[in-house]
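User: Please check token order:
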Amino acid sequence: MATISADAKLMTLINTFEVEPYDADRLIALLVEATEAVMRRQPGFISANIHKSEDGARVVNYAQWATKDAFAAMRANPEAQAHMKACAALAKRFDPVIYNVVFT
């Protein structure tokens, strides 16, 4: 479960995918599958929350990891890389950015 607090010492990734609206649900299914099959088994995984814009043109993954090192280790995992590549293939563009919670 996501913990959104300025006091929590977590790494937050917000990845915004721009997609054709007809691909939004396919991307969501891939992100959910990746989370359930791979990500949640990785050390340091905290949560993933998937959002879809009302027009279907954007999908956002709000993910939390215990540390940047845990996130980096997941990114180096070949199984995770395969899922990330499949998600990227559905997107016109994606923008993964690491954030710090500063106010809630």
Summary: The chain has three helices and four strands. Residues 18 and 58 are 5 Å apart (CA to CA).
